[in-house]
Amino acid sequence: MKARELLIAISIALMVLLLAYVIELGGLGPLAPYALRDIARAYLEYVYNPWNVTASSMALEAVTAIVWDYRGLDTYFETSVLFVAIVGVATLYRGYRELRGLGGVGLSEIVKTSTRVLIPLILVAGASIAIHGHLTPGGGFQGGSFMAVLMVLLVVVFSLDYAFEKGLTSSRLLAIRSAGLVGILLTSVALLIAGVVAGAGAYVFQNMAREGSDLSMPSWFLDRPLGGTLFLFNVFESLAVVSGLTLTFIVLALRKEEVDQALATGEWCE
């Protein structure tokens, strides 16, 4: 071992020891308590509690329950920030026409063949992350982002023309994205609409039955906890995320001819 490598190794070891000593002395401020706080204990106790449904989300994944049930309204507005940004990107490039035959044959046949093998694996894994978000770590955003990687691979490995030929057009992606957002909106007011029709009490973003409302979303599918609205939120959000991120990437990957056309026309073209 060279003297320089030995010096680097010793320096790293000393840095680790110094940081450990500083943390032990409380130099980084108060650390997390060794015992669970009351609010954390309440979440863990009620996130899946079939003996007290009015305080439960009936989902085995605590993070998803907190994100889409206990603080669903906050998540709704946080999610809207991403889609407003996507709308901004699409608006800047409005008017472009998806042109074919501008060149670009993609990468080598070895890379293309490998990607063809990965396509179903990525789709299945991404869909699983989304639809099992109420049971295991993950959710609609994570699953949609995972599947969006596949769309990026298609453009990079096969070319932008190939993506257009396979139907990844702006109009179609915008339609899927809009369907996902409408699904999220309808899910958030489903029980409220049902309550108005039935003359019963209900709330916005209501999932399971609550005090003052006996209405409830389905909590079980066969022998599996369904989480009610949590399953639907994850499915619709995954559609909105995968289509929105794919649209953004395609717009940013446009060729010079398409960008010039967008600047010249200033309106959407089919």
Detail the topology: elements first, then pairings.
Blueprint: H1 3-24, H2 38-46, H3 62-70, H4 72-92, H5 109-131, H6 140-158, H7 160-165, H8 170-198, E1 220-221, E2 224-225, H9 229-252, H10 256-265
Antiparallel strand pairs: 1-2
Helix pairs in contact: 3-4, 4-9, 5-6, 6-9, 8-9
Q: Structurally, how many domains make up the residues?
A: 2
Computed over alpha carbons, the radius of gyration is 24 Å
Provide mean pLDDT, rounded: 82
Unreliable stretches: 266-270
Dominant shape = flat
Structural class, by secondary structure, is mainly alpha
Counted by DSSP, the helix tally is 10
Strand content: under 5%
What is the number of strand segments? 2
Strand arrangement, major sheet: 1-2
Compute the separation of the termini in Å. Answer: 64 Å
The major β-sheet equals: 2 strands, antiparallel
* Estimated helix fraction: 55-70%
Q: How are helices and strands ordered from N to C? A: HHHHHHHHEEHH
